[in-house]
Amino acid sequence: MTRKRQNQTIRNDFFEQIQFALGTPPDFVCRSLFVQEKQAVRCVYLESMVDKKTIDDYILKSFMEHSFCEGEAPRLSESGFLREFPFSDPLEELLEHAVKALLAGHCVLADFARERVCLINVTEPKQRSIDEPKSESTIRGPHEGFTESILTNVGLVRKRIRNPFLRFEKMSAGNQTETTLLMVYMENLAPDLLIREVRGRLSAIRTDSVLESAYVEEFIQDRIWSPFPTLTNTERPDVVAAQLLDGKVAVMVDGTPNVLLAPMTFFEFFGSPEDYYQRADIATFIRWIRFISFFTAVFVPSLYVAATTFHQELIPTQLLISLSAQREGVPFPAIFEVLLMEVVFEIIREAGLRMPRAVGQALSIVGAIVLGQAAVEAGLISAAIVIVVAITGITNFVVPVYSFGMSQRLLRFSLVLLAGCMGLFGILCGALLLVAHLVSLQSFGVPYMTPAAPSKRADWKDVLVRLLRPWLDSRRLPGYIRNLKRKR
Amino acid sequence: MAYRHVAGLLILLILTSMLTACWDKSEMNELALVSMVGVDSDPDSGIKTVYYQIINPSSGTSARGTTGGEQAPVYTYEISGSSFGEIKSAIYKILPRKLFIAHSKVLLVSLRSAREGVHGIVNFIEMQPNGRSSVPMLIIDGPISRVMKTFTPD
User: Fold this and answer.
1) Is residue B123, in this structure, part of any structural domain at all?
2) Which of A115, A248, A249, B135 could form a disulfide with A243 if both were Cys (CB 3.0 to 4.6 A apart)?
3) Which segments within A293-444 are labelled E, that is strand?
């Protein structure tokens, strides 16, 4: 009895209800297809989400072929061809289900005679073609990057790891956006503990919207108050493949090319995919350049301030004479000069990201000449400051992971302030706090400073040097992954 | 709660760093870079004279170009007094900048004052903060002012 009444409502105003639930969208298409007298089938879809060719070619055509002339005997009384479509009983929550399906790009077929409904996936995702990753380019190695379509991204990873143990776990987050998340891992390599941890954190996300992987990152990262990222994000499928094969877990978010990877340690941020694509000795050298430039980017401005305002005896005499000649007539204290120029540099950098490409040239001229040369000649700042700011600015970009480079900017400013107050002593205080913070950080149960802080000699193989492939045990996972596996 | 404690601690830390204010801070253009120190004393009157040869950074040795060619590369200040303590306090009557002797290359002592004993001189030099203990002490026979007033490019 109840069943029948429900069906009644489905027959009468099912589509009105759908349309009402969606707020009568402009791309809502409802086509009535008459199979025979009194037997109408309706096809409903959102024009903007579906591939119309598929609908025309497969769904509508099959109806055309089987349609009857008026007055002809109803040969297919049970409308046999309709059986080909996997019609299902209208469920209680069918309306809600149909609305969701429509929004996902499905086509809803309703057979009123039999009170059945069928959902057919005819979605045509709007996506761009596979492109070179903009933020992580390499000279050697694959040049394809992830796109905004999660299925394409899955394909790009599958292409690299043809292994049945490659697992994708589907979740969704965001009450309003219903964004698809995929947790990716190698079942035979990734530690259970880690998988459970990531799964737990992902399912604990309570938010309205997920538009980019950073939304997810902020929910699942270990420590909120830290300048250092405990997850990395990459646009490169080869990086994701390599990390998955190291037993890590990746999180893909629909609608963004940036894939999250966890856990990450401090030293792994200095590794670039290109390290493994070129000769080991060169890769080692370049890795050292990255370490040096990290320290340069963080410490050089504060060291300059400390040395020139507190510890002039540290500077060689000739350099001191030249530096103090530059400072003659400069009205501001050194710390103010450094802060001023660093802030100006950050402003130029931010403007460079946002401005239209056409005015880029003008800005770089203003940035380079006016603010560099002219500010010195006007006696606003001393020439050495320009060098300091330029060095820190350039070295900041050496670290392959952009989010890790951002953390250096914050550290730099706080260290400059400390150096301005207390000189080298202040820098030392800052550095000690920094070390204490780094050592206390964890990334999904892995100490952030592995292998330095919980010191393990065996784990140093791929940190300061990049060993040759034949020297490494190919089946050996990173030490901390092995530790997590052992814990289970 | 924990956050509040941490925040309070941070604020305290920041405030304590402010307490130091300009402690020990001196910009480079407030310093008088001493390249040579000379000590002389008149055995008859007992009047001691100290010479400070100070580098003038804007004289053209800088990277900012050699436009300041008209300026002398060094200035020599001469202070006399009956004791080193008096000299030390009198120096800032004629010198606008803070003496910075960490980079001084040599300590010149005239023969006649050395004959009276270098104990007081060494004491005077060692009492200055920032002074280096590895500076050679040279004893000069003859008028010290002539040596002090020459520029020795290094």
Assistant:
1) yes
2) A248
3) 442-443
